[in-house]
Amino acid sequence: MATIKKPLKPKPLTKLRSPILTLILCISAIALLCLLSSLISTNGFSFSSPKNLPNKPRRQHTTHEKYLYWGSRIDCPGKHCESCEGLGHQESSLRCALEEAMFLNRTFVMPSRMCINPIHNKKGILHQSDKLNPEERWAESSCVMDTLYDMDLISETVPVILDKLKRLNSHYSNLLLINRTASPLSWFMECKDRNNRSAIMLPYLFLPTMASQRLRDAADKVIALLGDYDSIHVRRGDKIKTRKDRFGVYRTLHPHLDRDTRPEFIHHKIEKWVPPGRTLFIASNEKTPGFFSPLAVRYKLAYSSNYSRILDPVIENNYQLFMIERLILMGAKTFIKTFKEDDTDLSLTDDPKKNTKSWQLPVYTMDEVE
């Protein structure tokens, strides 16, 4: 009698496919977590993203990113905001911090406000009262960062977010932060080798061109009205100060600057670069009314004050005014600086811009001028 073999019992599909199903479920779970992470708001940082260009997705910041954070109120070190420097020093320090974020491939946490030293501001925000508490005084002696810079524009080079926290709480304890401590003299930490230009990741002109959209629009309107023009930046004021030595003799850190930035010398210096009859836009911290008027015999002079109809509704402080003037200066056919910063720069003086700490006798004669 033939033996009838029983058919083999098929293995359950669940057992055969369990590795595949597990893999699919894991991938789906990871994708879902990533989606949820991108939608979760950290509620402490104001996120900025690249401009809404066609077909360009908006950048989403998440708590899983790595950040470079310098602490709250980094831009007002010490007990009093009067210790902060001018915009040039602050930008140099800020540029160094941005370079560190680039090097470490981290998102930079930008302070939400910038300190403005009273000696660098004459308008609007610095009418302080003794009755103000520290927080109110801080608000009165600073300006909102994104009224100066375009966070979206900066993020196209270095991802940045605005810090709007008064303090970090437990919600942020798991953020991948590098938390720095500021120097009371230099805001962020200064770059170690600023003289080696090959080691600099961001050029000097990076932050000046990152002005907020409102400031750029105002500058564009003035540039359009100026038409074909040349420009000079004449820094006097703080740079031409003198002091007496122990013998009662006046000395200065920039011995030729006062002479080099007077109208008669400016006329002599720029005639080889700017033909007569040209429109010449002048930006300066000189406070004497009509100081540059002698140049009008050769050039059509223009100042930012000529365009108050455009600028007054936009400007709340001198930082904003200077940032607009900077854009106008750079938009000229020929731009002449006060100090030479690069070998290719045109400048009014050959004195070094950096503080040499060498107090010298001022020079006013024209004998050594070419």
TrEMBL record:
One of its GO terms (cellular component) is Golgi apparatus. It comes from the Eukaryota. This is O-fucosyltransferase family protein. It comes from Salix koriyanagi.
